[in-house]
Amino acid sequence: MLKLAIFDLDGTLKQARDPYVYLHTRLGTLEASQAFFADGFAGRISYEDWLLLDAALWKGTPLATVQALFRENPYLPGAVETVKGLKARGVNLALVSTGTQIHAEMVAEELGFDRVLCNYVFAQDGVISGEVQVQVPEGGKGAAVEDILAAFAVPPKDCLAVGDTRSDADMFQRVGVSIAVAPNHARLREKATLVLEEPDLTPIIPWLVRRGHLAAA
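RESULT FIELD:
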């Protein structure tokens, strides 16, 4: 029976797959961000430096504006019901994201997550300051899962991970049950216990019950 469930956020619970591209698009800074996107994606600059460059483009933006934009990014079908269904059955919940705390902590509060690991884009006096802190760099989700398993004292076999991109495969390798949501990479598909072809989390609870990982309601 599952004791812990670890979710990715963007593309797994919420529809936009890349929170930085989403925010740049909504704030009108997407074109400017392309100047360093290739270097960041290729690893020619550190993840922290990449995030600093992103945050510099948003400096001075009201925090309330960023929060409102993230609220407009809708949940996937079945996301809210799945998370709350796990919570109701006594499963601890953790959120692991390479996105920002502005979004991750909002979702964690709305859905009742017990723990959040993410990156930070800070605000001062209600506006984005340009300062950042990296806790989950690209390629760092495996280490994040290990920290969460230790914090909850849960063995990997009793843990579920849910994600949608290649970087989530590192989570899948460290848990007993893994679910890929409309995966965009073959590696994630290969590591998943279950693949959902559509971006819809509705089948998750019934599947877990059938497999004996959860009690029926």
